[in-house]
Design brief:
Blueprint: E1 4-7, E2 14-15, H1 23-40, H2 47-66, H3 74-84, H4 91-106, E3 110-111, H5 115-124, E4 128-133, H6 139-148, E5 157-160, H7 161-164, H8 171-181, E6 188-192, H9 195-204, E7 208-212, E8 226-228, H10 234-240
Parallel strand pairs: 1-4, 1-6, 4-5, 6-7, 7-8
Antiparallel strand pairs: 2-3
Length: 241
């Protein structure tokens, strides 16, 4: 019997890149805002130097995090990139730089039309609702985002990778979420949009995995327990399970 639904965030419940910009171009929106903030503080910083440094470092660091080798936090990579440009940030400046980076990116975010109704319906059916998100942002920013869209009240527990130093597809992050919900793996399912992280990771943790189909990621040999085109398709699937 299904007792819990676990969700990914970006690409599953929220659309973070509605303009379909290349990933590093999308990230550059935030970095440009950091540059504006720091130059206004009197720092000499060349965005044409900072941008490529940040962009060249980020994909590799993201992969190390997904492999469980080294955590990735936005504050760390901003500090390191700025230091490589000769700008040393104190803790107050670093915290504000993180906020400045997130602000313009966050304004781009949209909620999928059926997200609220789907999560609400699952709660009404008695399921516990959890979230596991791979993100370098501090989780508090995503919780504010979820609250802004009206999602947060439906969630019993939210888990963000940078906060706990665990990343999908590591099974441990799924186990941590199940423990928080007090639900065993065989009584839960996970919904996500990245097969190699969301689907393979959930299945490695013994959880049924539902792939939300999209144009950005193909299955490449990963075999989900189910596939959906829209979140609302989950309601019929849960009835079947």
């Amino acid at each position: 019997m299904i007792q819990a639904a676990l969700f990914d965030l970006g690409g599953t419940l929220l659309e973070f890149n509605p303009r379909r910009l290349p990933w590093l171009e999308w990230e550059r929106i935030g970095l440009a805002n950091v540059h504006t903030f720091l130059t206004a503080r009197g720092h000499t910083l060349d965005l044409d130097h900072l941008g490529p440094l940040f962009a060249s470092t980020l994909p590799g660091r993201w992969e190390l995090a997904a492999q469980g080798i080294k955590n990735l936090r936005l504050g760390d990579i901003l500090r390191e990139s700025c230091a490589a440009c000769g700008v040393i940030l104190d803790e107050t400046e670093l915290d504000e730089a993180v906020a400045q980076y997130i602000a313009p990116v966050d304004r781009e975010v949209q909620i999928y039309d059926d997200a609220i109704e789907t999560v609400k319906s699952l709660r009404e059916r008695g399921l516990k609702i959890g979230l596991i998100s791979n993100t370098m942002w501090p989780g508090e920013y995503h919780r504010r985002e979820m609250a802004r869209f009206g999602l947060l009240p439906y969630f019993d527990h939210t888990l963000f990778s940078a906060d706990v130093g665990l990343w999908k597809p590591q099974p441990e992050i799924y186990h941590l979420a199940l423990e928080a919900l007090d639900v065993s793996a065989e009584h839960a399912f996970f919904v996500g949009d990245i097969p190699q992280h969301d689907i393979a990771g959930a299945q490695a943790a013994g959880i049924k995995a539902v792939f939300k189909r999209n144009d950005s990621f193909s299955l490449d040999g990963v075999k989900p327990d189910a596939q959906i085109a829209h979140l609302s398709d989950l309601l019929e699937l849960v009835e079947q399970w």
